[in-house]
């Protein structure tokens, strides 16, 4: 099958540091190539891929040192190129939210769009009602709730190559881990409170976006003076396996409707259990009592840390391989490509 993957241009594919959507596009593209498909990736020129690369910008936007740049112009230029070459492909798989809808409204049946973000934002429902025919894919069932009326064709969970995160049989570092982004909805303050209550060291590897700098300086930075807390900053793929693999547990104390939560399966790949709040996709991703604990309070999270420290890390790794490998994800999308006739809904569930 000839498949076009259209990635956002904010991060490289995969990202050099923090970034979720572009990382998934990278893993999916490579896995589809491994399954024998002809895959063409539209992205920035700094992509690393097994697919045929069509570079539409010299580098990803976020780490581009140019002081003035237009993300809208860059994405519109890319979509113009995709439209110009559309007839070369059996399916156009978009990962840019709904930006392409006006340009491809005459041929929605040839597209598949994975929505990677939260869908409870003002204006989204009205916009999706303007283009009701585009086939959409959710990354968790919970993600769909604000837009139940749209043309959902399936849920495909994220996946990663098995080799990317090697299994770690023991928590050699003896610390708790927080990985991702410093922001109010990610609740790093909860992670710090858990560390203090358990007396365990907490390592925080996270980026601070410009929009969250005030929150970081006012709310989180004063908490970093605690000797139990170490702020590492933003890390990339090369550093994640050891960071996660050496941890007793990953803390995922979110306070928002998380669409998926890639860091949870990154930890599982290393064999590291997850202690996560019952928000958004969490109950779909974490198998409570097997790969971690799903909690509703700080007290429950504190108690869960001691419990998950005794979990079978090999079993956690096996759960990741069964449910969240890149191959499982690619097979899920294979089941959806071409399923664009009205009313043909495919619900994808991963298996070994």
Model description:
This protein is of the alpha/beta class and 352 residues long. It has 2 domains: 2-161 and 325-334, Rossmann fold, CATH 3.40.50.2000; 175-323, 3-Layer(aba) Sandwich (Rossmann fold). The chain is 31% helix and 18% strand. It has helices at residues 21-34, 71-84, 101-104, 124-130, 188-198, 213-220, 240-245, 262-270, 282-285, 298-308, 313-323, 326-334, and strands at residues 2-6, 38-44, 52-57, 91-94, 111-114, 136-138, 152-155, 175-181, 202-207, 229-231, 247-252, 274-277, 292-295. The strands form 2 sheets. A 7-stranded parallel beta sheet has the order 3-2-1-4-5-6-7, with helices on both faces. Strands 10-9-8-11-12-13 form a 6-stranded parallel beta sheet, sandwiched between helices. Helix 4 (124-130) links the parallel strand 5 and strand 6. The two termini are 23 Å apart. This is Glycosyltransferase family 4 protein. Residues 18-128 form the Glycosyltransferase subfamily 4-like N-terminal domain. InterPro entries: Glyco_trans_1 (IPR001296), Glyco_trans_4-like_N (IPR028098). Residues 175-298 form the Glycosyl transferase family domain. It holds the Pfam family Glyco_transf_4.
């Amino acid at each position: 099958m000839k498949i076009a993957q259209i990635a956002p241009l904010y991060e490289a594919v995969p990202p050099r540091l923090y970034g979720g959507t572009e990382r998934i596009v990278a893993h999916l593209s490579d896995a589809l190539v491994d399954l024998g498909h002809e895959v063409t990736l539209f992205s920035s020129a700094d992509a690393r891929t097994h697919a045929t690369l069509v570079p539409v910008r010299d580098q990803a936007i976020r780490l581009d040192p140019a002081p003035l740049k237009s993300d809208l112009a860059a994405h519109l230029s890319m979509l113009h190129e995709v439209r110009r070459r559309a007839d070369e492909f059996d399916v156009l798989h978009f990962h840019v939210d709904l930006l392409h809808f006006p340009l491809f409204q005459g041929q929605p049946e040839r597209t598949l769009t994975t929505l990677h973000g939260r869908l409870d934002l003002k204006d989204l429902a009205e916009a999706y009602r303007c283009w009701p025919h585009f086939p959409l894919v959710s990354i968790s069932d919970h993600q769909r709730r604000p837009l139940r009326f749209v043309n959902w064709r399936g849920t495909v969970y994220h996946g990663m190559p098995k080799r990317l995160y090697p299994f770690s049989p023991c928590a050699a570092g003896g610390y708790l881990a927080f990985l991702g982004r410093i922001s109010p909805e990610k609740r790093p303050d909860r992670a710090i409170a858990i560390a203090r209550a358990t007396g365990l060291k907490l390592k925080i590897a996270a980026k601070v976006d410009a929009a969250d700098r005030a929150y970081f300086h006012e709310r989180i930075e004063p908490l970093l003076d605690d000797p139990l807390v170490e702020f590492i900053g933003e890390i990339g793929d090369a550093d994640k396996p050891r960071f996660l693999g050496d941890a007793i547990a990953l803390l995922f104390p979110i306070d928002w409707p998380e669409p998926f939560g890639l860091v949870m399966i990154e930890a599982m790949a290393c064999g590291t259990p997850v202690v996560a709040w019952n928000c958004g996709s969490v109950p779909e991703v974490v198998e409570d009592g097997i790969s971690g604990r799903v909690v509703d309070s700080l007290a429950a999270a504190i108690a869960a840390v001691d419990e998950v420290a005794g979990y079978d890390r090999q079993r956690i790794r096996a759960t990741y391989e069964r449910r969240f490998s890149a191959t499982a994800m690619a097979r899920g999308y294979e089941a959806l490509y071409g399923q664009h006739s009205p009313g043909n809904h495919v619900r994808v569930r991963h298996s070994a």
